[in-house]
Specification:
With 268 residues, the protein is mainly α. The chain contains 13 helices and no strands.
Length: 268
């Protein structure tokens, strides 16, 4: 029964998965195809970037070394799609995968089956994890292939892998928040709009906080701030305290969601 429910959830979201996957893959491919031209004109780009305010440069992770390193280029022009769009996909899937049963009027039917609420919620979360993991694996290999195809310079594959792992943790964080908030509302309703708003809100909070050091501390409220995108710096790798922040949010939000679902009234 759990396997049937797991497969059913994957089937229900396969269209969304394909649309979002193809969109992100296409955006990465089109952007990275411009890399050879842009990296060959670094002198002109340096002059252009000097015209932008320093706060704007920090907000979008622009720096002069970005255009001299393939991974730095990917951070600015590729990670945006993976982190932002991947986070939105993760958030609205997680927000709807459990609460939609009540909105569709199928919650009572599902819970009448030989499954406990914990089994239902964990099976649905497992389907969600498969979708998010699949999307992130696909985007990693897309980025790797594009860098291999278009980069005129060598790049660190381990750096790309670490950056992609941060993006996965970010997506899971957005999903955990979306799932938790969807279960906090009394009556189920479409949570797609709020889920998108939450992700964009966190992204803008991080961007605004980077503009000036005065508000930098507020940026730590956003999981986007927890990502380490300084791939051009020596010794780039996984940071234990960043991992701890992500782990606390992910484990905490999903655990709280299971507890809430077990105690939630199913309203007709």
């Amino acid at each position: 029964m759990r396997a049937t429910l797991f497969t059913q959830e994957l089937k229900q979201y396969r269209t969304s998965f394909l649309i979002w996957s193809l969109t992100i893959v296409a955006l990465i491919a089109m952007t990275m195809a411009a890399m050879p031209t842009m990296l060959s004109n670094t002198a002109n780009l340096r002059a252009l970037l000097k015209a932008y305010p320093e706060g704007f440069m920090r907000a979008f992770s622009f720096n002069l070394s970005t255009f001299e390193d393939p991974l730095g280029f990917y951070v600015v022009y590729g990670t945006l799609y993976v982190a932002l769009l991947g986070g939105i996909f993760s958030s609205f899937v997680a927000a709807g995968i459990v609460s939609k049963e009540q909105g569709q009027g199928t919650a009572e039917f599902l819970l009448a089956k030989p499954l406990t609420r914990t089994q239902v919620s964990l099976t649905k979360i497992a389907a969600y994890l498969a979708l998010v993991l699949g999307l992130n694996i696909l985007t990693f290999f897309t980025a790797w292939l594009c860098l291999k195809a278009f980069s005129p310079l060598p790049f660190r594959v381990d750096g790309l892998l670490i950056l992609s792992f941060y993006a996965l943790l970010l997506a899971l964080s957005m999903g955990g928040i979306g799932l938790l908030l969807s279960l906090l509302v009394r009556r189920a309703r479409s949570f797609t709009g709020p889920a998108i708003g939450i992700v964009i809100g966190f992204y803008l909070l991080d961007a605004v906080a980077k503009i000036t050091e005065k508000y930098d501390a507020f940026g730590w409220i956003s999981p986007f701030k927890w990502m380490d995108v300084r791939v051009t710096e020596p010794g780039y790798g996984l940071s234990w305290w960043r991992m701890l922040l992500f782990a606390a949010l992910i484990v905490g939000s999903f655990t709280a969601s299971v507890v809430l679902y077990n105690n939630k009234d199913i309203l007709s």
